[in-house]
Design goal:
With about 400 residues, the protein is α+β, with helices and mostly antiparallel strands. The protein folds into two domains: about 200 residues, P-loop containing nucleotide triphosphate hydrolases (Rossmann fold); about 190 residues, Glutathione S-transferase Yfyf (Class Pi), Chain A, domain 2 (Up-down Bundle), CATH 1.20.1050.90. A seven-stranded mixed beta sheet has the order 8-12-13-3-14-15-16, sandwiched between helices. It has a six-stranded antiparallel beta sheet with strand order 2-1-4-5-6-7, covered by helices on one side. It has a three-stranded antiparallel beta sheet with strand order 9-10-11. A hairpin with a 2-residue loop joins strand 15 and strand 16. The radius of gyration is 22 Å and the shape is globular. The protein starts with a strand and ends in a 6-residue tail after the last helix. About 40% of the residues are buried. The structure holds adenosine-5'-diphosphate and magnesium ion.
């Protein structure tokens, strides 16, 4: 799959601009604070349904403007498609697919697939469990639409159950029946979601082993598995998972009343990552954890290809300059036959790679558009008209709500 063209109007610091991209490596180059990450942010919105760095959608609207627009034209193995998004300052965000309004954000997730890699992801091994859960949730959502629906349902039941757990003793006695109903629902959804996570992690484990082995020349063996209070082994059946989640919720009710929140379920689970049998979350060196993070991102791309038959688009935000020479060379040797859109403020050496586009960005504008080192066109602008319409609140994407549930200290 590849992203052919992206257009922006009043998006972050980009007033009105478009980029044409090639199906190989696209280097978005420029000094700091010129809008390079803004461009990747605008592309990734279509993969994830929301920005990867804005807290609120309206942050994406250019200062002193009322609305922002981004449009992406991509080609997959079947067809060419257009996705659009309009963001209004009153809080509405609306997606379009081939110019037809989409009712729920989740309806477009999975159409355009991308793997995002930014410097902060290099810390995924040692970060808090919520960061690893988010990695899983974002990756699986792009491949299995039902996953998002289940997360949304889980989140809403969790919220209602937590509300009861926060009540004082007198109030809560009337809610006993409904509380046990919510517990059963959570246990059942937890079993389904954990099952999908376990399937994904088996593939992740396989691919991470392959990439890590190549990088480390077979000296160290990683292992990735799903860590859940309700799980004893990877062969566990759905029924058994459900029963265990359910028992945990039943048996710890007093503890949960004390804390005023649900303490067991998929919102507390984690990815266990080991190297040579030692828990990498606690014992890996910086070099090992960076290599693992890199292997996980590459693996994410391979799994996406296994599910869909084609590579997703790889978005590398300032990440090459963060890597040492060996890892940088390794990653560049792996990205052929894939579309990569990467940003950098340093000049990078792509002499060995044929299909490279260089795009220079300054103050949210394209300076020159060069293809294979030849200047082929100057800046042009797109027609900036917005369709007048009422903005309703679209459903917002649920992943953050789930994965950002507080980690245990
Ligand atoms: N909503 C906004 N409206 C206008 N400018 C913005 C908005 N949000 C961020 N910016 C500007 O975008 C620039 C940062 O863009 P970014 O893509 O992060 O830079 P970089 O090129 O370093 O990746 C900053 O100058 C910032 O002030
Ligand atoms: Mg940046």
């Amino acid at each position: 799959m590849y992203c052919k063209r992206i257009e922006f109007i009043n998006f972050r610091n980009i007033e009105n601009e478009f980029l044409e991209l090639c199906d190989g490596i696209n280097v978005i180059h420029g000094e700091n604070a010129q809008g390079k990450t803004n461009i990747l942010e605008g592309i990734y919105i279509f993969a994830r349904g929301k920005s990867f760095r804005a807290f609120k959608d309206r942050e994406l609207i250019r200062f002193n403007c009322d609305e922002a627009m981004a449009k992406l034209i991509y080609e997959d193995k079947n067809s060419e498609n257009e996705l659009g998004v309009e963001i209004h300052k009153t809080g509405g965000k609306r997606f379009y697919k081939n110019r037809v309004k989409v009712n729920k954000t989740s309806e477009i997730i999975g159409d355009f697939r991308a793997v995002l890699f930014c410097p902060s992801h290099l810390g995924i091994i040692k970060d808090s469990p919520s960061v690893r859960r988010r990695f899983l949730d974002v990756a699986i959502s792009q491949l299995r639409p039902i996953y998002i629906k289940m997360l949304a349902k889980y989140n809403s039941v969790l919220e209602q159950r937590n509300a009861i757990l926060k009540m004082d003793q007198n109030q809560r006695s009337q809610y006993e029946e409904i509380l046990s109903h919510y517990s059963e629902e959570l246990a059942s959804l937890s079993a389904d979601i954990a099952g999908m996570r376990i399937d994904y992690i088996k593939k992740l484990d396989y691919w991470v082993k392959c990439f890590f082995d190549e990088m480390m020349k077979g000296r160290e063996i990683p292992k990735i598995s799903y860590e859940a209070n309700a799980k004893e082994n990877d062969q566990e059946s759905r029924e058994s998972l459900k029963n265990k989640y359910s028992c945990l919720l039943k048996d710890n009710l007093e503890k949960e009343f004390k804390s005023g929140s649900t303490l067991y379920g998929i919102h507390k689970d984690d990815l266990k990552i080991e190297i040579n049998g030692k828990d990498a979350r606690f014992y890996s060196s910086q070099g090992q954890s960076r290599s693992l993070a890199l292997a996980m991102k590459m693996a994410e791309g391979e799994i996406s290809k296994e599910y869909t038959g084609e590579y997703p688009v790889f978005l590398f935000d300032d990440v090459l300059s963060e890597l040492d020479e060996n890892r940088r060379k390794y990653i560049l040797s792996k990205i052929e036959k894939r579309q990569v859109i990467l940003t950098s403020c340093e000049p990078l050496d792509f002499n060995e790679i044929k299909n490279v586009n260089f795009i220079e960005i300054k103050d949210g504008k394209r300076e020159l558009f060069k293809a294979s080192n030849e200047i082929i066109e100057k800046i042009d602008t797109v027609d900036g008209s917005f369709e007048e319409d009422n903005f309703e609140n679209s459903d917002d994407f649920i992943i953050d709500n789930i994965s950002q549930n507080e980690d245990e200290e």
